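Researcher: I'd like a candidate sequence for this fold, 299 residues long. If you have to choose between options at a position, lean toward the conservative one.
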């Protein structure tokens, strides 16, 4: 038994005639009759009662028709799903690290290609690199930390988060409720590297405070910062509030700067004057709508 045989059977049932069914299937009546005969032999039952005027389903035939139709319908639905996915234009999106894990569920489903409306290819990298990829046309969109190049790019604001510092429980900062920017002078600091906008932001606020920070290591993952700080009481590491919000570890804690804004704003960026395809336009609309619906929730 195969899908072709099921299709033959259902066509004979619909036309109530081997002759009509054979014409509609563009096969010979003899070949169709032989196919149905093999099916009846395989099932060890008669599916049709042959009368002088038309074919009538037997009781076994009625039972088999119900399940044959379900198999055909499910097969068509499955094929339709994958044909739509293959035909959908792939949207290329680059994303700053750690952000993907805090996206609203409906956006995460898009990036996991669990939403049939879009086919996504994404790259994860520092905001500066992501921005460069969009400028060159290598990616259609990027979700990055600002600021962005307003001369070449357009953007939609998505959300913002507060930056702080992970400190070991034995570090002096752990005994304070917060820290000032000047207290970071001469501290041994781990931070995301120069391809990340937060690096530029941190350097700027330190220089405005009159000192060059002692950055001993640049990394690309907050988990690396966490693990190093956890094992080194004399090192502090930058982290975002959405990361520390879900962190439960007595060995480290987080402290925020109390006298300057160390805030990161996140944008959806794309080339200025970009001629959107229908699919890209719907993607942008979907992303903005999903974030707006979640603005009252904690990212």
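Model: Candidate sequence:
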């Amino acid at each position: 038994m195969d899908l072709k045989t099921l299709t033959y059977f259902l066509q004979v049932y619909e036309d109530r005639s081997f002759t009509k069914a054979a014409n509609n299937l563009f096969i010979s009546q003899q070949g169709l009759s032989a196919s149905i005969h093999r099916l009846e032999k395989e099932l060890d039952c008669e599916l049709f009662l042959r009368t002088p005027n038309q074919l009538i389903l037997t009781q076994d035939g009625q039972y088999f028709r119900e399940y044959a139709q379900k198999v055909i319908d499910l097969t068509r639905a499955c094929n339709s799903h994958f044909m739509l996915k293959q035909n959908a234009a792939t949207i290329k999106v680059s994303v700053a690290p750690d952000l993907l894990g805090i996206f609203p569920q409906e956006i995460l489903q898009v990036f996991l290609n669990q939403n049939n409306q879009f086919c996504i290819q994404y790259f994860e990298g520092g905001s500066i690199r992501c921005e460069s990829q969009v400028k060159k046309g290598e990616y259609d969109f990027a979700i990055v930390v600002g600021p962005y190049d307003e001369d070449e790019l357009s953007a939609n604001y998505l959300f913002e988060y507060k930056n702080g510092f992970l400190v070991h429980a034995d570090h002096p900062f752990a005994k304070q409720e917060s820290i000032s920017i000047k207290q970071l002078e001469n501290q041994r600091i781990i931070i995301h590297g120069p391809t990340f906008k937060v690096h530029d932001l941190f350097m700027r606020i330190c220089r405005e405070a009159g000192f060059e920070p002692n950055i001993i290591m640049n990394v690309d993952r907050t988990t690396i910062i966490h693990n190093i700080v956890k094992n080194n009481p004399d090192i502090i590491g930058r982290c975002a509030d959405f990361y520390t919000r879900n962190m439960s570890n007595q060995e480290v804690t987080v402290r925020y700067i109390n006298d300057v804004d160390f805030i990161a704003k996140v944008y959806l960026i794309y080339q200025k004057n970009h001629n959107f395809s229908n699919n890209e336009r719907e993607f942008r609309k979907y992303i903005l709508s999903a974030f707006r619906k979640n603005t009252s929730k904690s990212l």
